[in-house]
């Protein structure tokens, strides 16, 4: 066993998958960081609900992290509300919090249909 220092001053909880060799760190700002625990230790990526329209004020700090039995996904819970299951590659698999309607400027193929709703499958360019 060896010890290491990540330098993540916002850490509030963590969980390790020995199978995947990944350490997940939940932070007080609502972000979940994934680290590869081979030498040298490296940040793989991070996931959060910020990209889905939620701020730290909406969800709070990450309060719990748990791996799925196969270690290919994990669940993160937040202090104020919500639970989300993420794949280790960073895809949101399910969430108890619905996605806020975001500005579709970054998605040029999404157009408003006659009912006033956005339909990503409508043809557009």
TrEMBL record:
Checking SUPFAM superfamilies in the record gives: WD40 repeat-like
Assigned GO CC terms:
cytosol; Golgi membrane; Ric1-Rgp1 guanyl-nucleotide exchange factor complex
GO term, biological process aspect, one: intracellular protein transport
The record ties this protein, via PANTHER family, to: GUANINE NUCLEOTIDE EXCHANGE FACTOR SUBUNIT RIC1, RAB6A-GEF COMPLEX PARTNER PROTEIN 1
The protein's name is Uncharacterized protein
Which organism does this record belong to? Lactuca saligna (Willowleaf lettuce)
């Amino acid at each position: 066993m060896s010890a290491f220092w990540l330098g993540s001053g916002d850490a509030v909880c963590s969980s390790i998958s020995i199978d995947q060799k990944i350490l997940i760190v939940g932070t007080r700002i609502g972000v979940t960081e994934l680290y590869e625990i081979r030498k040298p230790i490296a940040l793989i990526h991070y996931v959060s609900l910020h990209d889905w329209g939620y701020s730290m004020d909406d969800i709070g700090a990450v309060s719990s992290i748990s791996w799925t039995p196969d270690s290919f996904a994990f669940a993160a819970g937040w202090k104020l509300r919500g639970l989300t299951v993420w794949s280790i590659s960073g895809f949101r698999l399910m969430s108890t919090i619905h996605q806020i309607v975001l500005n579709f400027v970054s998605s040029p193929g999404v157009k408003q249909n006659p009912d006033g709703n956005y339909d990503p499958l409508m043809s557009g360019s």
